[in-house]
Amino acid sequence: MTNSLASQRFLSNIQPFPVITKHLTPSLTIRLQSEHWYENRIIRYVFNVPRGSDWICDLESTFREAKLDSVLNSEEIFGSLKGKDPDYDEKLFDALAEVRLVHWARSRGYEVIKKLKTDPSHPTPDFSMKRNAKNVIAEAKHFRVRDYLVYFVADRLEGLGLKTGRLANFGLMVETGDQYDVKRNEILRDRHLWMTKARTELSETWFSSLVRDLENNHAVESDILDGLFVVKCEETVSTGRVCPSLTESLSSTETVALCLCKLQVELMGKLEQIKVFMDTKQMDATKAIVFFSGIDQWQAEWDELWSTLEDGREQWVWNYIDSMRSVADALIKIPFELIVGRYKAKAGELAGERVVRYGDVQYVPFPRKPEDVQSQQL
Questions:
Q1: How far apart are CA 69 and CA 26, in angstroms?
Q2: Which residues does residue 362 pair with via DSSP β-bridges, in sequence order?
Q3: pTM of the model
Q4: Strands 172-176 and 242-245
Q5: DSSP letters along 220-258, please?
């Protein structure tokens, strides 16, 4: 599929979503002109309407209910999105996090929402807003994946399937291989180098050859990137989709500790940014909000953390949270609210596991004490 045909199909499929079209199409159209346009997840969702329509419909509703046209400087939300930027895909999800924050804030009665213009001389949070005539500063961020390369490889392979039309009979799994743990630190140090390596090796020609082999024998497994990953057919993955998998063996305690550590690092970074801004601008805010969007790439860790919090028997977890809160309170010196995404439990269950889809995310205050978790379950 050529770039021109891809652009035509994209523009045709996105027409039923006018608010997304207005705000995202300008930069996505430029992204479609790039060599690797198919790596972008939102472009693939639009291409796969109606299969991807749940996610797109939910996003359209979020955009519409956020009433972005009444947000002061709302154009700044998308102002940093440059379709030719090598980091465009990640920045796009940061912009979506800001939209979700505005949507959440409106549902909680916040008014006079203003997108703050960045100042190169000092850190700038995302928004100021008011509730009950009191000033509030808010920062939104997409919860970054910790092992980006396995997700990038999955995005690339799924995109190649879309571009070539060759992934029509099965889905794929990308698992970390024997060499991943050995080279993990090196991979995390130089993101763009490893993305370039992946693009060079995982070419369209290579992908077509892989699919032919798998069509002849679904049991075939392919080692890629010098043993960093293994690609194979997976019957639990939908046709045309590619699912990433980290084959690490962390205990429940290690998984929860990892998630809490990530949460603390991100929280302190955002509160520091808010504090510097308030001190620089001599702004008198009565509350700070830190809003984390994007939990799908941390789903396993978040599920383990919520399960542990609901169980209530691991006192060390609450001690950690209490310590994290104390350090944060000492830094910001005003009340703050930490909002995180959580999958809703649906009424129906399959094999004892929750059945979820992308739209089943609710944004809730991160608990301070066990009673907060119990109230969220009611």
A1: 16
A2: 342
A3: 0.89
A4: parallel
A5: -EEEETTTTEEEEE-TTSPTT-EEEE------HHHHHHH
Secondary structure class of 76 (helix, strand, coil): helix
The pair of structure tokens assigned to 280 is 């620089």
pLDDT over 70 at 378, yes or no: no
DSSP run (H or E) holding 364: strand 361-365
| Cβ atoms < 10 Å from Cβ of 117 | 10
Q: Which amino acid is at 230?
A: V
b/e map of 236-250 (b: 16 or more CB within 10 Å)? Answer: ebeebbbebbbeeee
**Token pair for residue 262?**
């990530």
Q: What is the pLDDT of residue 345?
A: 59
Taking only the tens place, the pLDDT of each residue in 94-110 is: 999 999 999 999 999 99
Q: Is the Cβ–Cβ distance between 44 and 162 less than 8 Å?
A: yes
Name 21's Cβ contacts closer than 8 Å, sequence gap at least 6.
14, 15
Looking at the chain, list the stretches that DSSP marks H as alpha helix, in order from N- to C-terminal side: 3-14, 18-31, 41-47, 53-66, 88-107, 148-164, 180-189, 191-201, 204-216, 252-281, 299-311, 315-332, 370-377
Q: Which residue's entry shows tokens 């009611």?
A: 378
pLDDT in tens, 42-90: 999 888 766 556 788 889 999 999 999 999 999 999 988 888 888 888 8
Token digits of residue 322: 């209490």
The length of the chain is 378
Residue 203, class by beta-carbon neighbours within 10 Å (0-12 exposed, 13-18 middle, 19+ buried)?
Answer: exposed
Cα distances (angstroms) measured from residue 120 to each of 123, 125, 277: 7, 12, 12
| pLDDT 10s digits, 314-356 | 899 999 999 999 999 999 999 999 999 887 755 444 444 444 4
Q: Which residue's structure tokens are 């070539």?
A: 164
Q: What is the mean pLDDT of residues 188-197?
A: 91
Query: Within 13 A of 19's CA, how many CA atoms are on the CB side?
Result: 16
Distance CA 216, CA 21 (A): 41
- d(C-alpha 197, C-alpha 190), whole Å: 11
